[in-house]
Amino acid sequence: MTAHVLISGALFRAPEQRTSKAGKPFASATVRMKEGDGFQFWRVVVFSESAQAELMRLTEGDAISAQGALRVETYERDGQTKIGFSIIADSVLALRQPSRAKSEARKSPAKPAMSAKSKPYVSDDLNDPIPF
């Protein structure tokens, strides 16, 4: 039996892209969700290329929503048994689009801004009168 869930929260760390033992690329991230007075952490794993692209363009602190198959596992830490939540996501959605400045900074180095005093070159050949 598979349970499908929809979660939303903020990225706790920047997403990572890796390759599985079988050679299949995937992306993973940790999502932090507010729970009462504390936080709950979910591991999100994505195999779809489009969902990987969406996840990889986000950074730490960005709000996301993910939908997919639920996995619940137990682990032991400091002598206590705890529950770990993870999701094999079919789709990932940024709840707020990253600012254009953020995405442009990732794509290319900064270009010098044109000052108010400098004007682009305009040829005199283009200043003909319009006959109408």
Break the fold down into its secondary structure elements and pairings:
Layout (H helix, E strand, L loop, with lengths): L3 E8 L4 E4 L5 E11 L2 E9 L2 H8 L6 E15 L2 E15 L5 H8 L25
Parallel strand pairs: 4-6
Antiparallel strand pairs: 1-3, 1-5, 2-3, 3-4, 5-6
Outline: elongated
How are the strands ordered across the major sheet? 1-3-4-6-5
Instruction: Determine the number of helices (DSSP H or I, runs of at least 4 residues).
Output: 2
Sequence stretches where pLDDT stays below 50 over 5 or more residues: none
- CATH fold description of the domain at 1-5 and 8-19 and 29-98: OB fold (Dihydrolipoamide Acetyltransferase, E2P)
- Spatial separation of the terminal alpha carbons: 76 Å
What fraction of residues sit in β-strands?
A: over 45%
SSE ordering? EEEEHEEH
Report the count of strand segments: 6
Rounded mean pLDDT score: 83
The chain-level structural class is mainly beta
Structure description:
It is a single chain. This protein has helices at 49-56, 100-107, and strands spanning 4-11, 16-19, 25-35, 38-46, 63-77, 80-94. The chain has 132 residues and is mostly beta strands. It has a domain at 1-5 and 8-19 and 29-98: Nucleic acid-binding proteins (OB fold (Dihydrolipoamide Acetyltransferase, E2P)), CATH 2.40.50. The chain has a 5-stranded mixed beta barrel. The longest helix has 8 residues, at 49-56.
